[in-house]
Amino acid sequence: MSSLILVVSAILVIFMIVGAVVTIHARDLLVAIIASAIVDLVLAVLFYILQAPDVAITQASIMGGLTTAIFLVVIKKTERYEQ
Amino acid sequence: MIKKAFALLLVVIIAIFLSVTFAKIPFGYPKTVVGKYYLDHGVKDLGGVNIVTSIVVLYRGFDTLGEVTVLFLAATGLGMVLAGLREKDEKKRKKTPPSLIMRTETKLLFPMTILFGAYIFIHGHLTPGGGFPGGVVIASAFLLMFLSHKKWEAKEKYTKITEALAGMTYVVIGLIGLYVAGSFLENFLPKGVPGNLFSAGIIPLIYTAIGFKVGSELTGLLQNLRETTE
Amino acid sequence: MIYGQVIFYGASVALFAIGLYAILVKRNLIKILLGLSLIEGAVNLFLINIGYIWGKTAPILSNKELLAHPSAKAVDPVPQALVLTAIVIGVAVTALALSIIMRIYETHGTLNVDKIKELRW
Predict the structure, then answer these.
(1) Which of A48, B61, B176, C95 lies in the 20 to 30 Å Cα band around A72?
(2) Cα gap B104→B123, rounded to integer Å
(3) pLDDT at A78
(4) From the list B28, B128, B137, which residue is nearest A54 (CB)?
């Protein structure tokens, strides 16, 4: 792992932490769910950097795709804004 | 406010303890012996090039069978919990139908997405991927159709039959291994040349079964969720 | 070399702390579930961190050089297999929890935990 990749992964980690903070602070649940999907996709890139391509492809398709879709269906059914 | 402050204090204390613990774990040095064994003997024992797949399907095959069972139970439980759910306040939201571009494009994309999912699970022993992501890609193709066509639906009969047949295939392959090779889920096919498509014994068969099972299960789950929202 | 430890373990600890804060403080059921999902990601990242080895490549032995000396050239595959299982179990648990949340909303008309006080069906 060269130093360039370390710098890139540091930037990605900062991005991910910002996404996590947005996830728990947004009043609008739609924003929270999209931010959570961003966190999951950045995690997939980190898994790829850590030489785990199997886990990366699984994380991107399952957590980034399907779980987000199920969450969106549920907030459509219930309510969108957190009181 | 006081509650938030206490929670923040607790979280900070836990984070400090975790950091102190993790500082003692060296990053980037080999730690387990069993991983070294799998890497050195995996190709000779089983013939699969992707060692992670070999571990998931054959070395730890029981674990994967249990995992598939958990997924099945969760999908069934979701159907059971949601059965008969009705929207109480009939909010008459004005629903705009999907546009012409989306309908046409998804019709084109649907077979290609399914083909891509099948590619992922058939090449599970050669490239990254496998039955679980392949099944999820197939389910996402159905999700696209659900989003763009209001009337289109996946018949529950067919998803259930596919799922049952795939799960049965998995167990039957395990039982044949018990009869021929002496233990449950043991490899009984020739190993072939490592790196070829037809190699690695029963790994491609099992991953194909898992792909069909996961795909039909998640499609049924999405169909259940969709019926309650409309 | 110390930077890798700080970055990757630090990311895992930070995600865990943020998710735990969400579970402790937030009152909305969907927010609590999102916090659980963050914690799950943190634990998966930590397990993959354990398996990483400096300068080695992924455990897919696709050329002759790798096939000759696998354990000298590839990272530890065991944590990766564990995490692969954990992610799939995670989506099953999340879907079941969301269906129960939908039932709670049907019965009580709210997602706020403080307002769902009476434990009746």
Answers:
(1) A48
(2) 30
(3) 81
(4) B128
Q: Give burial (CB, 10 Å; 0-12/13-18/19+) of C87.
A: buried
Determine the Cα angle at B205 with ends B164 and B213, to 5°: 30
Query: B45 CB near a chain C CB, below 8 Å?
Result: no
- CB-nearest to B11 from C21, C53, C93 is C21
Find chain C residues with C-beta within 8 A of A20's C-beta. Answer: 14-15, 18-19, 38
Complex ipTM value: 0.90
Signed CA dihedral, B205, B206, B209, B214: sign only: negative
Chains contacting B with at least 3 CB pairs below 8 Å? A, C
Q: Where are the domains of chain A?
A: 3-77
Bridge partners of residue A28, in order along the sequence = A81
| Beta-bridge partners for C57 | C74
Token readout for B182 is: 């002496």
* Subunit contact C74:B51, Cβ cutoff 8 A: yes
> Which residues on neighbouring strands pair with residue C60, listed in sequence order?
B50
Closest in B137, B222, B229 to A77, CB measured = B229
- CATH top class, domain C2-59+71-108: mainly alpha
